Amino acid sequence: MTNSCMQYHEETSYDRQDMSGHYLDWANQPDVYKEYPGIAPLPLPREVDLPKRPLSSLIKERAEKQGPLDITGLSRLLLLTNTLTAKARHPGGDFFYRSAASAGALYPTEIYVATCGIDGLEDGLYHFAIHRHGLCPLRQGHFSSRIREMAQGQGNKAPKLTFFFTSEGRVDFRQLVKRLVKELNVRVEMRQVGIRNQAKMCGGLGRCGRNICCSAFIDKFEPVSIRMAKEQNLSLNPTKISGLCGRLMCCLAFEQSTYKELKKGLPKVGKMVQTKSGRGKVLRHNVIQNRTTIRYEDGQEVETEIKEIIGAE
Fold this sequence. Notes:
single chain; alpha+beta; NADH Oxidase; 5-stranded antiparallel β-sheet; 4-stranded antiparallel β-sheet; 13 strands; elongated
């Protein structure tokens, strides 16, 4: 069982210099591009005008425009969203960069296009051959209803959209929900979540530089108090012990049990102790290094190992 954030990171991290037995077999690598033997791709026009504005505005304009999409418009969308943008030389063979990132994968996601009512193209399911900028016809027919059903994941039930929102107080969305239902023709649910749940859903990087704990591995939120920060000798500056959500960092509670266990053998702060160097008062602890700071009777403050303490009063 993982008892601390540090233990979790140590168990799940890897060292590039210590990965024995792993190598890339360039001589027997799979084909970079997916091919369908015996099926010649239908070429798409490459010489199209590419607008110098955000893709989102182009898609919004297309959604508001009446009339079917033509094959030139389809080619333009594919060129803007998923195409080869540059070529790089490599001893094992040239490779290409794509407009859609592969998130570190050796082979990116394949693109399939279901067409319906596009001028110059039969309705059906196609595979986008990115290296040839063409469509390989796989099946003819109308697949829009099936794809919509799979995307919504509702089976035979009426599709449903759930909107999550945060708010300090209660918000009346009844009129908005009615309008959305009328415009989208789906069931709509507005669900209020807390600020910590928002951070968990959105994710992000914490102060440590890693993914925030709630998004990475914490399933249930535990109560977090300022006392935990005090016991862990952390700065009580809110900007330094608060997470992305603005609340106290979850890792304070996640590591609290570890600090309690490590503190069992330490003398309490404020106690008088006797060491080989003399008698003094315990000021603070360094739990991680198993040391404590003592102020001796002559006013000198010294950080001492616990094993040097002879006894406590």
